[in-house]
Amino acid sequence: MKIDPSLSAVVTGGASGLGLATVKALRAQGASVAIFDLNEEAGAAAAAETGASFVPCDVLSDDSVDRAFAAARAVQGQERALICCAGGGNAITTIKQDRETGAITIFPTDKFELVVRLNVVGTFRCITRGAAGMATLEPIAGERGAIISTASAAATDGQMGQAAYSAGKAAIVGITLPVARDLSRFGIRVNTIQPGLFATPMMLRAPQAMLDKLGAMVPFPPRMGDASEYASLALELLRNGYMNGETIRLDGAIRMQPR
């Protein structure tokens, strides 16, 4: 797939972090990009900064996602590239015991379900809409489109308190190959990036001492990843027509410890 002014792309979660870095990388190559994000203030600022368009979108809602794709296509035509970066998590252990009273509390099921829905169901909701639109296009060099999902090191190395986040991200890894096989007949490729520790705005809220400690855990290079490095891999996955059905770790060889 060529990344040039003829390409139309959608990036979910594109108002910050890995998504915004991907928007910037696509725009630097001249592609038309629609940012889908729930944060309207950040989305508008990202669009103004990059020259992309912003469409409010809640990946937890069928109606919101349908409206967002329709709005983006009205502005820039049918997308051939979809990069799914929207997601999130929480930090709750499976059960917890109060040190003073000894009382046992459990991980609230609704909070577990919300994180799983946000990550894998939200990603799949966008994949289905994107793929349905791509399938209507005429192939270019035999290809109609490419889709990239975002998992996490937590998909395989989940730490304490990450049961919900790990479940959602592991499910993204799990659907990658079957979805790629489903879409192969339409000439649409599907790959997933599994990032490790990245210096995103959410991560950078932590104290500097903690950030230094986290970076030192990475074998090489001993630092957190830069969002531009995620974006670089995302663009290569779009360009490389033989990359399909793969999950690629991008983590400096880290394997997360239990806590």
Write the layout of secondary structure elements.
Layout: E1 8-12, H1 17-28, E2 32-37, H2 40-50, E3 53-56, H3 62-76, E4 81-84, E5 95-97, E6 104-106, H4 109-134, E7 145-150, H5 154-157, H6 163-184, E8 188-195, H7 208-216, H8 227-239, E9 247-250
Parallel strand pairs: 1-2, 1-4, 2-3, 4-7, 7-8, 8-9
Antiparallel strand pairs: 5-6
What is the CATH topology?
Rossmann fold
Largest sheet entry = 7 strands, parallel
Which segments are poorly predicted (pLDDT under 50) over 5 or more consecutive residues? none
Instruction: Give me the number of helical elements.
Output: 8
**How would the global form be characterised?**
globular
Proportion in β-strands? 15-25%
Protein name: SDR family oxidoreductase
Organism: Sphingomonas natans
Keywords: Oxidoreductase
Q: Could you characterize what this model shows?
A:
This protein is an alpha/beta fold and 259 residues long. It has one domain: Rossmann fold, CATH 3.40.50. Helices cover 43% and strands 17% of the residues. It has helices spanning 17-28, 40-50, 62-76, 109-134, 154-157, 163-184, 208-216, 227-239; strands at residues 8-12, 32-37, 53-56, 81-84, 95-97, 104-106, 145-150, 188-195, 247-250. It has a seven-stranded parallel beta sheet, with helices on both faces. It has a two-stranded antiparallel ribbon with strand order 5-6. Helix 1 links the parallel strand 1 (8-12) and strand 2 (32-37). Helix 1 (17-28) packs across helix 8 and helix 4 (109-134) packs parallel to helix 6. It is globular and about 65 Å long. The mean pLDDT is 96.
